[in-house]
Amino acid sequence: MTVKVLFFAQLKDVFGTGERMLQVEACTTVGELAQSLFSGVDRDPWKLMSLRYAVNEEFVAPDTKLKDQDVLAILPPMSGG
After folding, report:
1. CB burial class (10 A; 0-12, 13-18, 19+) of residue 22?
2. What is the pLDDT of residue 38?
3. Where are the domains of the chain?
4. CATH 3.10.20.30 fits 2-75, yes or no
5. Residue 68 DSSP class
6. What is the chain's Cα-based Rg?
7. Count of CB atoms within 10 A of residue 43's CB?
């Protein structure tokens, strides 16, 4: 199935793009896809735990199963003051 992944803020620099179209297995979860994406980039599990995920513009948990044509947004921690 096809999933569009959107990257925001510094993640655009990490992945060199703001979005990717990916082919994933049926029943893949948000967390599994994120772990796969970050496996070659950063192995620090604490950073993965600090990310927020949205599927089709709604915040979701990492155990959410993706469906064909979903849009997954991966958002890094925000800071400000």
Report:
1. middle
2. 87
3. 2-75
4. yes
5. T
6. 12
7. 10
Q: How far apart are CA 43 and CA 67, in angstroms?
A: 26
> Which element (helix H / strand E) includes 20?
strand 19-23
Q: Nearest to residue 61, comparing CAs of 44, 49, 79? A: 49
Contact by Cβ (8 Å): 29, 61 = no
pLDDT band at residue 44 under the 50/70/90 scheme:
low
Tokens of 53: 């995920």
Residue 50's identity, in one-letter code, is S
Tens of pLDDT along 46-80?
Answer: 577 789 999 999 999 999 999 999 999 999 887 65
- pLDDT (mean) for 19-42: 92
SS3 76: coil
CB contact at 8 A, 72 and 1 = no
